[in-house]
Design goal:
Elements lengths: L4 H14 L4 E3 L8 E7 L8 E6 L4 E16 L8 E10 L7 E6 L11 E5 L24 E3 L1
Antiparallel strand pairs: 1-8, 2-4, 3-7, 4-5, 5-6, 6-7
Length: 149
Amino acid sequence: MEITAALQKLIALIMALMSFISVTIKNNESAFYKKYVYEVVDEEYSDYIPGKVIEEEKVGEKLGDVTVSAKWVYYDGHSSEPETLRAAVYAIKGVNKNTAVCIRFTDKGEALTTTHYYVMIDPQADPSAVADYIIPQEPSPAEGDIVAE
């Protein structure tokens, strides 16, 4: 069976992408090799936890500006040096700011985005109003898991 040039290019592309991803084989789950984590440094929202991207039409009025600490965390536990970035804080329409807000980075950091709004959730509040934006916590690989890199 002969492999066409297009199929060979596709295979090469897939192999290149796989070099950036580490896959854990356990219960058919997979995890990225690294993830970008951030937290608000300013006191008012410092205990809020990051959520998913929210649609722009759900973003309310601007509440202020904050400082954010962000870094890459790698699958093996080490991380990059944290970077300090600025972000604007916005209300979420129909959601109390004591439950959740969203931020938009105004500085372009390692993640290279200033266009998305990211939900930040108060872990002490009832998150039902923003349940669709909660990021499920990924379990750490257990000893003996098969990890392909």
